[in-house]
Amino acid sequence: MDGASSKSRVATIGRHAVIALPRRIHITGASGSGTTTLGRSVASALAIPHHDTDDYFWKPTDPPYDDMRPAPERLRLMADMFVPRPAWVLSGSLAGWGDPLISHFDLVVFITIEKELRLQRIRCREAARYGAAAVAPGGARHRDTEAFVAWAAAYDEGDSVSRTRAKHEAWLATLPCPVLRLDGGRPIEELTARVVTTASQL
To answer: pLDDT tens digits for 113-139?
Structure first.
């Protein structure tokens, strides 16, 4: 892999050291499932870069997440920033626009989590990002927050939104690399260990 695959890394999980070759790991799931949190944790454990699809999907705006980049521009930026490199973690979702990246994945991690907990996490995240008063009824971001929560809630049973469980499952079935399924309600330390151990065994 790019002439650098022979350089192994030592990941420390608890009191144990795991030898892991450079890997390209994609962590995906529903909004609020914990893909970014796990992505950062795995990248830290392996001492490799972490990237998130939102940083490429959206143009930088204030407030954020208001202006999408065209898919070709997203892919070009990702190729410039990290895709050719031998080791990285990419969190988020790219089903439907990121298929040119599939051949680069050594491992895909799919996180599922109980719906109510997922939506609770989203509400907490929005309040932390914009302020509790802004997302509360009557606040400047209340309508946008409720629309986003409704979109996220449709993931499990819906078929009319851009990201659904059915679409994710169909995309996962096409992947040539291993897929590791995890319960996002488990402790982050446990999830990180599962990913690092699996990656080290590929």
So the answer is: 999 999 999 999 999 999 999 999 999
Long-range CB contact pairs, 192-196, < 8 A, 24+: 192/13, 192/38, 192/41, 192/42, 192/45, 193/13, 193/14, 195/25, 195/27, 195/38, 195/42, 195/107, 195/109, 196/11, 196/13, 196/18, 196/20, 196/42, 196/45, 196/46
Cβ atoms of residues 33 and 114 within 8 Å: no
CA–CA separation, 137 and 50 (whole Å): 35
1 pLDDT exceeds 50?
no
d(CA 62, CA 2): 38
Residue with tokens 């892991």: 20
- Among 3.10.310.70, 3.40.1110.10, 3.40.50.300, 3.90.79.10, name the CATH number for the domain at 9-113+164-200: 3.40.50.300
Lowest-pLDDT range of 11-25, 95-109, 133-147, 180-194: 11-25
Closest CA to 69 of 55, 52, 83: 55
Neighbours of 65 (CB within 10 A): 13
